Amino acid sequence: MRDKLKIAIYSGVIPSSTFIERLINGLASKHACEIYLFGIVKNKSDYHANVTIAGFKNKKWYKIIHLIRYSVLLYLFRLKDKKKLDAILKSQDRNTLLDKIKFYPVLWHKPDVFHLQWAKGLKDWIWVKEFGIKLVLSLRGTQINFSPIVDSSVRAAYKTYFPKVDMFHAVSKAIALEAEKYAAKQEKIKVIYSGLHLEPLTNAIKKDDSVFNILSVGRPHSIKGYTYALDACKLLKDNGVKFKYTIIGAQGNIQLAYQIKDLGLEAEVVLSKQKPFDTVQKMMQSSNVLVLPSLTEGIANVALEAMSLQTLVLTTDCGGMTEVIQDSYNGFVVPIRNSEKLAEKLIEINTMPKNEQLKITQNALKTVKEQHNEAQMLAKMFELYKNV
Question: Can you tell me the mean pLDDT for 100-122?
Answer without folding.
Answer: 97
